[in-house]
Design brief:
This protein is α+β, with helices and mostly antiparallel strands. The chain has a single domain, classed as Alpha-Beta Complex (Peptide Deformylase). Strands 1-2-3-6-7 form a five-stranded antiparallel β-sheet. It has a two-stranded antiparallel ribbon with strand order 4-5. The chain starts with 25 loop residues before the first helix and ends with a helix. Bound molecules: nickel (II) ion. The site of nickel (II) ion has 5 residues, from helix 2.
Length: 168
């Protein structure tokens, strides 16, 4: 298995809309396995395939500290959401940046698991935030898109500067 390379903002590949998975086969399962490995190594709590430059609707999440509650969502759809919560979010594609973002408090999501079986999950709190954050990635959206354009420009400059410094 391989650790996948995670793209960083402002890489334009992060803006590509992911396509639905046609069939959950061994190729997809291998991508899921590699996404989990990449997530745990980072470490992070969620990763969308888009971030690894794979433009299929696949998300992996594990919000447990022990990294023992893996959740995989293929072709996820939000069936309903309500309420409001504001949480400080970060993203493996926007390293070192943490900002408060407003999201729905409760979500009900329907998806396929890595065996291709359909399931529905009703959740709230951090997991609900994480699902919404990762689903945004699949449509080419980043959490910093919720900030003002001025703030986003500052983050862009900061990350580009860090990238140049790291290359030296
Ligand atoms: Ni993210």
């Amino acid at each position: 298995m391989a650790i996948l390379e995670v793209l960083h903002f402002p890489n334009t590949q992060l803006r590509i809309k992911a396509k639905p998975v046609q069939q959950v086969d061994n190729t997809i399962r291998k991508i899921v396995d590699e996404m989990f490995e990449t997530l745990y190594k980072a470490p992070g709590i969620g990763l969308a395939a888009t971030q690894a430059n794979i433009h299929q609707q696949i998300i992996v999440i594990d919000i447990s500290e022990e990294q023992n509650q893996p959740l995989c969502f293929i072709n996820p759809k939000i069936l309903s959401c309500d309420g409001e919560q504001t949480t400080e979010e970060g993203c493996l594609s926007v390293p070192g940046i943490f900002e408060k973002i407003k999201r729905a408090e409760h979500v009900t999501v329907q998806a396929l698991n890595q065996n291709g079986e359909s399931f529905t999950l009703k959740t709230d709190g951090l997991l609900a935030v994480c699902i919404q954050h990762e689903m945004d990635h699949l449509t080419g959206k980043l959490f910093i898109d919720y900030l003002s354009s001025l703030k986003r420009q500052r983050i862009r400059k900061k990350l580009l500067k860090e990238k140049r410094t790291n290359k030296k």
